[in-house]
What does this fold into?
Amino acid sequence: MKYILDTNIFRKLLDHFPKKGQAFITIWEKLDEGIDDGSFVSVDECFNEMSNHYSVKTDNYEWIKQRKKMFLNPTNEESLIIKKLFENPKMQESITFARDNFVIVKRKDCYCGLSFLFCNISQQVLYLNKIYVKII
It folds into this structure.
């Protein structure tokens, strides 16, 4: 199964789940396994957003930089769809809408997108190594 991860998944993990120590080691191992086998992908816009968020000298910046291969550029076909989406004035209102277009378009090749951590039980959730994530 293939999942596309949005920026906030990475930021929640990187900012709140330390990679050092035993408490969250399984989470990081499973995440790396998914990245290595291609089960977890993201888009280049997410990489750019996080690169601007984290200082170059931080462990978090190094972590995303070492996994750059998982952050995919749009294909030619996807670029044409993104161009069409940007023709809608609503999609031009904020940078968030702009970035989300890249994730939305890439989802066509994935089973689902993961965008929120710690969702309520009442929402549709996927249990992933003791982390609940909403399936959008």
User: Anything to note?
Assistant: The radius of gyration is 15 Å. The beta strands are 3-5, 40-43, 71-72, 112-117, 125-128, 131-135. The mean pLDDT is 76.
